[in-house]
Amino acid sequence: MSSLNKTSNQTDSTSPEESSDDDHPPEFSHDHLKGLLEALVFASSQPLTTTELTKIAPASSKQIKDILTELKQESQSRGVQLREINGGWIWCTHPAFGSFVRKVSNQKPTQLTRAQLESLAIVAYRQPITRPEIDEIRGVDSGPMLKILLKHDLIRILGKKEEPGRPLLYGTTSYFLTLFGLNSLEDLPSLHEYTQLEGDLF
């Protein structure tokens, strides 16, 4: 009986330690963590936020942010760059090589006409905005342009404006940020630069 009790006590005393080891894995070295973050971002087709990476990598959000910033700086002159887009981190091909990369990726660029770009620019800089307000700025009916932008998931309906008729309010989408390589709307170029963009946005 005493032997059984002793065994039971030993088992009970070691279990919490084993559980603790599982809950708190050993910390990675800087280089190992750097490689892990590089691999995680590379494996994702969508931007990964620092918060999402913190749930996977054994490091603090500050450590992860610092290492990602380091990777971003190191990759600026490379063919593949780490960038902050739409609130997260993602690997992108260097813009200078876009036309060459498309030849092997078979990826069709998003094509927009000047009128569509103009309508998109107005929504981006004036959101939330209604169709009548867009029409007033452009001087023409913007309905067809808005339908195309909605189809391309570049704009979305935010709600209705509290005024007679309750017209729909439009704003840009997260895909808009991704397509233009923006981390947030604060990164938008000047309105003049925006409207000078060509139809091929990729």
UniProtKB/TrEMBL annotation:
Superkingdom of this protein's organism: Bacteria
Pfam families xref list: SMC_ScpB
UniProt KW 4Fe-4S keyword: no
Keyword set, alphabetical order: Cell cycle, Cell division, Chromosome partition, Cytoplasm
Listed Polar residues bias regions: 1-11
Coiled coil regions, renumbered to chain: none
InterPro entries linked to this entry: ScpB_csome_segregation, WH-like_DNA-bd_sf, WH_DNA-bd_sf
Stretch list, region Disordered: 1-30
GO biological process: cell division; chromosome separation
Protein name in the entry: SMC-Scp complex subunit ScpB
Source organism per UniProt: Pajaroellobacter abortibovis
